[in-house]
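Q: Two folds, back to back.
A: First:
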Amino acid sequence: MASKDITSSGGLAIKVGGRLLRTAHLTDEYYVGAPDPAALIAELKQRRVADVFTFVQELHDPKPHFEHRLSWDKMAVLPLSTYANWFDKQIKFKPRNRLRKAWKAGVETRMLEFSDDLVRAIMEIYNETPLRQGKRNWHYGKDFDTVKREHATFLERSEFIGAYFKDELIGFAKVTHGERSSIIMNIVAKMSARDMSPMNALIAKSVECVAAKNIPLLNYGVWGRRGLNEFKVAQAFECLDVPRFHVPLSGKGQWALKHDLHRGLKERMPEAWIVKLADTRAKLNEWLYRKGPGQRAPHATAKPGAVGETES
């Protein structure tokens, strides 16, 4: 069945997907927590909308507190005290020099208000290339209303940061804050500006904003492999195992969990296979977009796993 969105009685947005095994999770699970998982589980069972419900604990609390089926999400998290401590003691020598290089080149970071003009500038960044990190750029070619709607979430607790060169927006980041952790919801820069290290400048400003709020953790998405992950490591992000729980909501769900069928194909594959398939996909995508009518090929400096985020 196609995925569908539902809303709990408490106003939580939930996404249900899967064909043979219907799985439900909070749509924004790393931005919004489940304050009462037991009540939500009981409601989902009564509504019979899914076979399995999965949820995660908050980043600051890595010790499992529930007795449901357990797995671990690996997240890239930066422990923070002060901006000065991060700059002087946490990041590596190379990214510190790249950051200084960005400043010397004239890259400036500014706090931005969410507006139609910002949305148009973001669209210009997205539409620079149809590929990023060897994968299809899912934001490429989106219309104005779609981009605006996607970036208008959590505005009451989010900050937009722009990286500028001579009044041109060459990169942006959206950082969403919680009480005990913040998360980089989006961060991207123009590939044509890669030599000016705008990604390093955006990370630095994000760290400064989070540290100023005395929030101890900054999340930069999942802990990946190569490319982007090397950039995260250089910026002092660490791998944090976060508890994820899987709860059966039906007999089918109980049977699936018992036989370990809730795990996707990617989770079952050897790491070497995943890396090989990712490389093959990147080469195929690059060839297809070079051959495709009306599509511009990526910038010559692009390579699988590299966008500018790899500027470590």
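A: Second:
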Amino acid sequence: MQNNHSHTHAATGNKLLTALAVTAIILVAEVVGGLLSNSLALLSDAGHVLTDLLALALSWYGVRQSGRPAHGGMTFGYLRVGILIAAVNAVSVIAIAGYIFYEAYQRLQTPQPVAGLLMMVVAAAGLLVNLGVMALLWRDRRENLNIRSAFLHVAGDTLSSVGVVIGGVVILLSGYFPIDPALSILIGFVLIYGAWGIIKESLGIFLGATPSFVDMGQLVQAILQVPGVRGVHDLHVWTVSPQLHALSCHITLDEAFLSQRTPLLEGLNDMLLHRFDIEHSTVQFDCVNCDPNELYCGLALRVEEAQHHH
């Protein structure tokens, strides 16, 4: 399992390095093209490409860190390094959107001439490269929040490139220069919408929230349907990372099933994994004489009291 994880981290890291290289080329092209064409939309897109570059670099670092093994000081390993980086990336997207809004407002007040042809050609080249990077990260984005945040950056940049291309066509055909800052504002809102989803998910993980796909009522009922289970208490479900969900609980058993705890636990773990995608579980078995409302089981004390009375 460790070798498979290492191979996966290495493959993902290589994809991110490739994406880094081509994104750096596009950044240089858009900065030069934006300055020569006087296009705010193209320069805004270049600013977003810069955040793409930082996001991809941070994601690459996060992937490397999350592959490090657990030890005594970090018993869950470094799985949440990528979550922290994803949150930082998302905040940076919102910051760059705020700057775009400010610049767009200035341009709307005083429209400036834009070289539409150059703006369109450079944006089209950036669009093609962004589509290639998105294809490179497409599969990994589903299972890795860190990669998903980087994918969001690139997807947002792809949308902005489409907008800039359209803006270039409009300027060429009509000479309507305010389309340039107007497109920048639209791009900014798209970026904020996507970034908020990443921030919300990251905060949920750090706050120990129940995974959104787990219905606690259904989970409790599924546990209670296991033969021999009389009750469940002290139940906690949380996300260690988007790939690893954990559970801990106390389960009350009929005394007749105490000797069958091992097969019962195996069946319980199998049910948690396949029905609720909970891979890591810690279960404490109690017998029916334990009070689930007590912090500590009082069975031993009651046994001692009964012996004393005898």
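Q: And?
A: Strands lie at 229-241, 244-253, 280-287.
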